[in-house]
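JOB MANIFEST
job_type = single_chain_structure
chain_count = 1
residues = 183
[input]
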Amino acid sequence: MLLTQNKLSPTGFGGFAVTLNYLTGLSPQLWMVILAVPVVIWALCKKNYVKLFYAAVSYFSFTAFTALVPYIIPAVKMAALPASIISAVIMGIACSFIFVLDVPNGPESLAGLEIQTRKGLPIGAFFFILNTAVILTSFVYADYKTVICSFIGNAVCSAVTDASVAFLRKNSKPKSSKKTVTA
């Protein structure tokens, strides 16, 4: 909401979809569905049905939300840097609550959680790499100041995500209760 309203580069498949929309004229929502297809096929081949279900519900809800939000919520306009940082902190915290449960919130995170499990790469670091590539594509339609602010937001979001996941994992472990046996 803060990103698109303030002309910042969106991230994930949505960011690629905006670039492809600019280049082709097809709607970003259609591109988001097209981009998800290979990941869905991969998840089906892995028989990862539960995570695919969570990813699909979240992703298609998000896609519908992005199409409807301009008609429901008025634009929140502010300078690019504060908008980037505020949205990054909100996104990082929100995603950490999902990722700490090892549940994907879209096709990108399906791949990211798999890489985290197999290679040990933290999910925030995965998204930093992915979203750096996505933001680079925004040079097609955005000016360099917008892209720089988007990169800063990407770094903040990735750091907040990894720190929040680490915090939640550390503090959500059940405390062992030692029972004292008396004779």
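[summary]
Residues 144-171 form the longest helix (28 residues).
The radius of gyration is 18 Å.
exit_status = 0
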